[in-house]
What does this fold into?
Amino acid sequence: MPARRPRCATLLARASLAAALAATAGLGCSDSTAPAPLVAPPFVFVSDAEGTLGIFRADAGTVARLSAAGHDDREPHSADGRIVFTSRRDGNPEIYIAALDLTNAVRLTTTSATDTRPALNPAGTTVAFVSSRSGAPRVWLMDADGSNPRALNTGSLTFVPEGSPSWSPAGGHIAFTSTRTNTSQVFVMPAAGGEAIQLSRESGGAFTPVWSADGRFVHYMALAGGHRLVSVPSGGGDPRSFAEDEMGLSELTCGGSICLATVGPLDAAGDLIILSRDGRRRAVALERAANDRQAAILVQP
It folds into this structure.
């Protein structure tokens, strides 16, 4: 007589995964080998849900608008209990810093140039950003109160467009993009200055680098193959696919045990998803009719 199958196994064999989970919920069935569910910590994101772009907060399924109407706030980044972001409330893109609920906002840049893509270092002392104040878009640094602005010497000619600065988790290095090789590629260099190392060699270009939470890898978006996410060792090495989707993936941000990304970067209704640290598992973080994108995990003080 064949061995009798456990009741949980029989249910799983006869039903779809979702139906089986519902059917076994009251039977005391569990799989100790199943990975922990992907859960997003509190984060902010940019949306046009109310007509104009603004920054919203998502926490345990609750969404609340933080930006005032008409401010056109975007590109949030969080570190050390604060948020830096770009705002067009003054008619020109400028960098602001604020509390995690976007209150007590202070304007950090005051030039007629275009200042965008701010990133606050983990210690909360220095902001990296992109500015056209010297001509071509370049990576600049300033103190977190807006003082002491200075161009980051990346080793390329000053007319070469560069951008998308991203701090390493320890704050000692900055990843950025440069067109010094004629296409946009990802480089990494010491934040204090020094030689820049080229990490990507994508035929269609590499964009928007972001560090893994442990600092071992730099992830970026590659255009070749349709807006896919690629991972490369932060010290240099062979790239590998991190995550792909038929709708395209972009705007990755990582922290703790998860990453967040935008699905459908060219669509008018981008959705936000959660990715595991290795990019192999995913779950829905936010799915709405609005164009939701540019997520940033909130870092408490």
About this structure: Confidence is low (pLDDT under 50) at residues 1-30. The first strand starts at residue 43 and ends at 47.
